[in-house]
Write a structure and sequence with these properties.
Layout: E1 3-9, H1 30-37, H2 44-49, E2 71-75, H3 84-91, H4 110-119, E3 126-130, H5 133-147, E4 151-154, E5 159-165, H6 171-184, E6 193-200, E7 207-208, E8 213-216, H7 224-230, E9 235-238, H8 241-244, E10 252-254, H9 259-271, E11 276-282, H10 284-290, H11 295-315, E12 320-325, E13 344-349, E14 358-362, H12 366-375, H13 388-391
Parallel strand pairs: 1-11, 1-12, 2-14, 3-4, 5-6, 9-10, 9-11
Antiparallel strand pairs: 2-13, 4-5, 6-7, 6-8, 12-13
């Protein structure tokens, strides 16, 4: 049975795109800059697939090899933006021409906040500004605990985030508030994601929990998930994939608590007999390390995945093709804590595909989705150019 496995290393970019300056991301290169800052980083298994052989300035310092066992390249983002939703949608076949709105300068308009108050029973809200999630709960956490008012904040991404202490606003109620916000945030206010950000702890020691949940916009057109599930095949979503695609086109789901959990669940599902698609997002690279500029944590997470890669590969069945990629960058060596506009790597491996093929520089993430539906013999009119004939 033919099957594709996509593993998204969330935010693991591989060099600034030509228009990076427009986004304030000159010099960003998540993988290379981590390697330059921490020369002892060893990604031997990713490099054995061809990671260090990808075309581009200084990429070879990651460790190029003479005979890569996989196919390798990098993909440019054709969409306007650099957020999670845009990146995932593009690799699934949707190119976003108009970027999702952001509200970093003024916060969300009065009419949005007033309607949210009304729809939640005249509940009050704190914040409504752009801020780091860990900082905002320490700044406003005590007032939240005293008043019971949730904390609203945003970032350079197109997000409406609501933080609340789990002892003050139970998690299910926080999700309900986010659902109300999602219904309000349409039209000119249609941010890509509403995110529930529960936390616990005491004054000066607040910490976010693993009960985060994303409420995304409905995909604006057909995706590979729709096509594959519509063809009667399985689509298994691991991690936050289900939330990114607003539960559409998914036949089975498995939420995860962290990268190790996501890796183990991916291996578990690969070992099961199925056809279609397994789609995994490993979010810790971005959420835990990239946004906090935790260079050493990012390096350790990359090495952890690299050490688990042989287990992933050994679980593959004869007709499986593994695709390892990313959705944007989030360079922890730069002053910014936001996503960075970068190329993303594309590595492929399978027992029935060629080794050592340089896929070059792809003009869109959509080439990945196009290749997968072609491999699964599904008629489609998706954007992108398939590279299936190059690797078969």
């Amino acid at each position: 049975m033919k099957r594709a496995i996509i593993i998204v290393l969330d935010s693991v970019g591989i060099g600034e795109l030509p228009d990076a300056a427009k986004y304030g991301d000159q010099g960003s290169n998540t993988l290379v800059n981590i390697k330059k800052a921490r020369p002892d980083m060893n990604l031997k298994n990713l490099c054995s697939l061809g990671l260090g052989n990808i075309d581009g300035k200084e990429i070879s310092i990651l460790g190029n090899v003479t005979f890569p066992s996989g196919c390798y390249g990098k993909m440019a983002e054709a969409s306007n933006g650099k957020d999670t939703t845009t990146g995932h949608w593009e690799m699934a076949g949707i190119i976003t021409e108009h970027p999702f709105p952001t509200f970093t300068k003024t916060g969300f308009p009065y009419e949005v906040m007033r309607r949210l108050e009304e729809d939640t029973g005249d509940m009050g809200f704190l914040g409504n500004l752009a801020a780091s999630g860990t900082e905002i709960i320490n700044i406003l956490g005590d007032e939240h605990v005293r008043t019971g008012f949730p904390i609203v904040y945003t970032s350079a991404d197109s997000v409406f985030q609501i933080a609340a202490h789990e002892d003050i606003v139970p998690v299910e109620k926080l999700y309900w508030i986010c659902e109300k916000a999602r219904k309000i945030l349409t039209g000119p206010y249609a941010v890509a994601r509403v995110i529930a950000r529960p936390f616990t702890g005491t004054s000066g020691h607040y910490v976010r929990t693993k009960n985060r949940r994303d409420f995304s916009l409905e995909p604006t057109s057909t995706t590979i998930l729709d096509l594959i599930s519509g063809d009667g095949k399985n689509v298994t979503a691991i991690g936050k994939i289900e939330d990114i695609f607003q539960h559409r086109g998914i036949t089975e789901k498995s939420h995860t608590t962290n990268n190790p959990d996501g890796i183990e669940k991916t291996i578990e599902y690969i070992r099961k007999p199925s056809d279609g698609l397994i789609f995994t997002n490993l979010v810790d690279f971005d959420m835990v390390y990239g946004h906090r500029n935790d260079l050493d944590g990012y390096k350790a997470a990359l090495e952890y995945f690299d050490n688990k890669l042989p287990d992933i590969i050994s679980a593959l069945k004869d007709e499986d093709i593994l695709f390892i990629t990313a959705d944007h960058g989030c360079d922890p060596t730069t002053p910014s804590t936001d996503h960075s506009r970068e190329y993303v790597p594309i590595l492929t491996y399978g027992k029935n595909i060629k080794a050592g093929v340089n896929l070059g520089i792809r003009s869109t993430f959509a080439d990945l989705g196009k290749t997968i539906v072609d491999y699964l013999n599904i008629d489609n009119t998706l954007a992108g150019t398939s590279f299936l004939n190059d690797i078969k």
